[in-house]
Protein 1
Amino acid sequence: MTSLPPQPLSPLDGRYRAAVGSLGEHLSEAGLNRARIHVEVEWLIAQTDRGFFGTQPLTPSQKDALRAVVTDFGQADIDELAALEATTRHDVKAVEYYVRRRLELLGLDSIAELTHFACTSEDINNLSYAITVRDAVQQIWLPKLGLVIARLTELAEEHRDASMLSRTHGQPATPTTMGKELAVFAHRLQRIARQVEQTEYLGKFSGATGTFSAHVVAVPDVSWPDVSREFVESLGLTWNPLTTQIESHDWQAELYARVSHANRVLHNLATDIWTYISLGYFRQIPAAGATGSSTMPHKVNPIRFENAEANLELSSAVLDSLAATLVTSRLQRDLTDSSAQRNIGVGFGHSLLALDNLLRGLGEIDLDRALLLDDLDHNWEVLGEAIQTVIRGEVVAGQSTISDPYALLKELTRGKRVGAAELAEFVSSLEIGDAAKQRLLALTPASYVGLADELVDRLAPHD
């Protein structure tokens, strides 16, 4: 048997690349290296702007040329860095040598020794990870989540008045509307999205053990904490003043926990929609030419929601592991975070793939309102709650002497099917006021939905 040509090991880079490939712009090794070069270049510019060691500020054209090293970063540069790392056996050192080469090509070799000046590798790495994760979340993951929330909001509005039998514990229960139930998911996800939007992306820039030791020895008369803060903030990050060699990764643990929480709410959505499809409440709109089953041609399988379930579970497994691992580092530094952080893209990739499937799945379903009403019409016993509650009020108001309304309705309805005629006869015989009796006689399972329709308005407007 001949060997296969090189193949992607992960389905994220193979079968599902079209759905998640945009994350590679940020959360790939190449994206990380481009961010590292960005940090190194900006540090060079910051040092010359301050005139360290008698240097002059770079001219605008020189700054533009240096920054173009970042913006023009492409495949040839990726290959060059890979070759450098094969020699250095150190990823950040390879980046340093790459930047030095560019300084020489630009005629700026006089400032080459300021490349990576007073930095430990983690000064570059932590800022680069913060930049790449921030951009991936803000530019790709959150917008996709927003599309899912927007679709849920549309469906909630469309079906706000679609009365539906509830199933608490899987059993017939007080009716609701499909719109209100979908609004619950949209509301939950809106709240988590706001929390993710408020994430602080922290950065440190303080040397080998977070003490500015080399900085102070090299340039004693500079306020290094101020320099560090200004530099970190210039990258759009929040400065962390107290660290070891590494930034402590607490912001990452917080972010991944929130994304994992969103995953679990989305998982709940996927299983509920799957169940509604199973009950026949939602019909799936078949795609032209698609096959549901290899042997049963009638089937339209709910694969979008099943695919989402699996990928949400995988995403949370990775993100939960990262959140637990990254907050611990032995003494002033160990390398467990180095390997762990290379899987950030995997965690977000599976979540993004799930969002893509959910969005497509939610666009391929149609509500069968007639079936919902038929289901309600076969479950008049759910009005037992309404009847016993009204009787209680009548007893308090002196309009009834019924001693135990709950027991009375329990005897009538528990474990039994009770039809419209039986309930009407029962209500007509009750010792309650005429106004209360008429309200109950007018009630149907389809109309017993309280404020479900109005509650949809509690959803925050979606941009």
Note: The CA atoms of residues 34 and 157 lie 44 Å apart.
Protein 2
Amino acid sequence: MHVRVLIMALPVKAHVYPHVPLAWALRSAGHEVCVASQPDLVDEIAETGLAVVPVGEALNLEDAINTMPMESDKRLNPWDLMRMEEFSHDGLDDDFVHGVSLVMTTLGFPPVSYGGLVDDLVDFARVWRPDLVIWDMLVFAGPVAAKACGAAHARMVFGLDLIGRMREKHREVMARRPAELREDPMREWLEPELARFGCAFTEDVVVGQWTIDPVPPSMRLPTGLHHVPIRHVPYSGGTTIPAWLRERPRKRRVCLTLGLSRRELAGRERAVVSELLEAVADLDVEVVATLNAAQLAAVSEVPDNVRTVDFAPLHELLPTCAASIHQGGFGTMQTVLAHGVPQIVLPSGLWDTTLKARLVRDAGAGLYAEPDRLTAAGLREMLVRVLDEPSFAAGADRLRAEIRDMPSPSEVVPVLRKLTAEHRAYGTA
């Protein structure tokens, strides 16, 4: 069965890049793939060799965050209001569950789909007629377009499936309430959008007909949803391996990175770069810090044992490392896990970063520091432990083995083809 696959990607590199290995696995198997996204990142997507179509207006996430009002000298980032990590627990208060669902539906999800995105995507889907739409878990224009053209559709999750967990808990809350009090913010938002294209609201518009999930099984949040596991294959764009990275390190090497998203979205930087460099100064290690000029602007002196580079491909750098210090972003953490490197996580506090950091600690693969408790001395102590205590390397090896046992993108392709045949609404567009 030949399938056409439309991928709806959020125009942020950290969200686009994980799609690329699966997209090329589909292409290599003889299927057609097209990526749709707002204009912000179409040139970078085209450089992956995939076909791309711009839809909607530019999202400009960086400008949106930088123009938010100030309070107590801190930017009001709506993601800070969304305490999604609480959904890893049971026994949540009903009002809390409903309140978070309302906040997410008001502040979190709709802005990503404004600017004519839904209409443009539906128009393109009805012309191009995909058999399958794979959509970013935050971009609900994807399932609307799939319903409007009769395609099967699946979510791609980035990190822990907090949305699936939130939806599951909210449905439990609604079931306990009298019929007249069963408010459903997600349905109230999406139902009118679907109706514009002659479609009815169904639960899969929120959680997908199935979910493509790269998270190691032992770290995955329990839900009743159909999750299709996929091995994370690191991708960071086309890069040239520098000469220094081709040489064997003379000392134990430590990777220090704050990820791509913190550069692109310019949000509140929780980790102070000067403290990070102070923590590793004079240790008998070689530190490779992927920091750009803006991140180093307030640093008066870089320690002698630190090499700063604007960018280095993590999938080439990490195999040479004995430890990693990072911010807990999806792509960074997944790549660290895939290479079995013990880690210290400095979570930004956004989305699932703190929860993932705790799961890494609980798995014995690393340590983490709460953002507001980070000190240079504390980080130094953690790094010495992670480097010197063999248990951390053993824990990291266990998670690496778990990831290697997950199906590769090419092995997932037949599964997607079968599910597409089962869910595609032929002739209904």
Note: Residues 94-108 form the longest helix (15 residues).
Protein 3
Amino acid sequence: MADKTDTTSEPKPGDASRNTPPGPAHVSRRRLLGTAGAAGAAALVAGGAAGAAGAEAVREGPDPLSSVGSAAVPFHGPHQSGILQPAQAHAHLAAFDLMPTADRKAAAALMRRWSDATADMMDGRTPQGDELGVALDAGPSSLTITFGFGRTFFDRTGLAAKRPDALEPLPAFTADALDPKRSEGDLWVQIGADDTLVTFHALRMLQKLAAGTARMRWQMNGFNRTPGATEQPMTGRNLMGQIDGTNNPKQSDANFNTRIFVPDDRNGADGWMAGGSYAVVRRIRMLLDTWDNLSLDQQEKVIGRRKSDGAPLSGGQETTRADLNKVGSDGALAIAGDAHIRVASPATNRGAAMLRRAFNYHDGFRDDGAPDAGLLFVAWQADPLKGFTPVQRKLDRGDGLSRFLRHESSGLFAVPGGCERGEYVGQRLLEG
């Protein structure tokens, strides 16, 4: 896992990569309440500090809504949000099934409602008809909401002729122990934000707007490190303690778009997917009790990287390209033959790659006392038959890390491109 996740370094609070382009500030009801509260708190802190220790004791800091809370991601554009942006601190993944009476027209109306509400929430506005009040005092907090269609969606809406070939079911893998009730689905939603109440509010709004048209099939909660929690931006760690995401494709790569997004000039029955991508979603439980019993040296050999700083065992720093041919003083390969970074490397998979944007999860403890925890794996690619499938087959056969993982749910979803103002996500499919 260490070399397939999101490599984008964690931004500092207020990082421009999570903000909308420069322009007039929009003050919503949410932000107004939050700013008023923050201003009152700041006044109390400043007054108390001045009385106790003088001006030197007053620590100047950014208003909360000028950093993490105020960061906003645009809803409209060529691609949906939640693909290229850094993975946020909190997430919900969910799948919905259409009701038996819901047809193509009902699905289109639902996507219109969802898109309108999402545009409002991502900009920090209160959606029409929202009486929940959960996030009234919060800014958008880098909220992104992403929508996708599962294979069964096309049969239920009479659109089987427009189902992409790339949505063929994924093959079975040795480490699979899949629960059908927590897999697949007609509609898929990915929600991420840097505030827990913002993500919960978004999920509840989508669920309420789906009433009568679709019901939730499954839902999972994920998390990452909070922006600003480290002294400087750095690649995140997974629940095994490993720096996770060093070797992800980068937007600066010459072939990034061709690997991750469907070409803009796509024609034919699946031409509606132009500018879109395919998401493979897997709930991967980590056998942490077994893993934690390994020595540090054993753990590092399984991954092929140092645990302290993520540097490859062939030498260098985290971002140093791993030398898969280097031999140690003992005559053995510095990076073992079954080390994760060797088996997952594009160099050993004919260039196959995917953009991972994963979240950790912890759902309590199992009957045997082991933690029910691991990774909510989300991988993006232009074609899963050329991205996820060949790499996972290789990992399934020869990855030393597979001994410590169990894949317990799975889904594959077609995620259409973004939409312009006045449009909704999936409109080219549902009205084309």
Note: Residues 75-430 form one domain.
Protein 4
Amino acid sequence: MSSDDVPIGRRVARWRVRRSMTQQMLADRLRRSKSWVDKVERGVRALDRYSVIQELAHVLRVDPEVLLGQQRSTSAGTPDGVDDIRAALARYDTSQAPEQTDELRRQVGYAWLSYQHAHYGQLVRVLPGLLDAAQGARTPELLVQTYRITSSLLVKLGEADLGWLTADRAMSAAADDPILVATAAISVAQALRASNRDRLALTAAETAANRILPAPSHPVDHEVGGLRGDQTARQPHDQRSEGRSEGEGAPARRRPAGEWTVGGTLLVQAALAAAGCGESRRAEELTERAAGVAASLRGYDDPHRTSFGPVVVELARVLVVAQRGDAVEALQMHSTVVRREGWRRLPAEYRGAYLVDAATAYRKVGDLRGAARALVDADSVAPAEVRCRPLARTVIADVARAQPAPAGVARLAAVVGLTR
């Protein structure tokens, strides 16, 4: 049995023994029960959250990829298999026997983990079968998640239009569920931005955010998922006092924290799209609103896989400022935010993607050293972000043409097969 075939629970058990820990010792360090550790190791409890695997890896003193059974080395070039994904999207015959929901949920969780760890080669191989299973099962939540993962990967691999099509499939699968529609809108905005359709992305993201977030102009206290907050966009006072929200006559309800993370993510996407349109003031307003949402979230789960939080908003600010042309200010902000604890807790994919975006922004304003530093850092965090993405290869080529080429970029150019 190869390393990739060994269940993750068994790998946890192996490394626990290697570290001379009992199940109770591991449980104590994780602040969990011995029963939880036992169920994980026996495969009874699934490990499908990035943060939990990251926590386990930290305690066991290994890289998260080791627990996932995957190697950090990443070959250069776009992974083969995009045509298989395209073929799976073109299959409309869903008469096959549907997967059991629990098994399909496990597969979707594994796909998310592969994406968050930037294992794009592995994900390309997994997605065609997952798309077949999800399209056959027709469970809206899992179908939307599968389409979102697929769309995000296709955008990274330079297939923005196909990613847009897949994101639109997610919108259709979401039907009348407002939160599923909102999560699908995140993918729509990402695909539109990647297609240089920033104006459409701005409209799509801001409209979707406004549907699930209350109006931003009433600074009154609120609760987010049962947790107190006082710095974000609040439910309008007149709606609270009359017992109405989200439409005339609709009963007021407490929004789970997950809804606010989706809304905040949409605001971030809208801000980045506004910056792409040259609307700096609007971009700043949208990041301020997103910062308000992020400030009220404390200790929440992330069921919609957004990674949203205060650090994500700060990263968006850096990109907005860089897009505006203020390279010096952007570099100062960048240096500050990447030293924060919240930065290290973000998935490898998110950090790598941000660094590639930062490199792109620095290149646009002529700061080739800033672009080089961001590219080298991205390669150390998530090699596939640099070695598999056409966007990154383009930036590397541009920066490598400088005389002399900034440190580290010549090596990257050689790794990805580019010549000066």
Note: The first helix runs from residue 8 to 18.
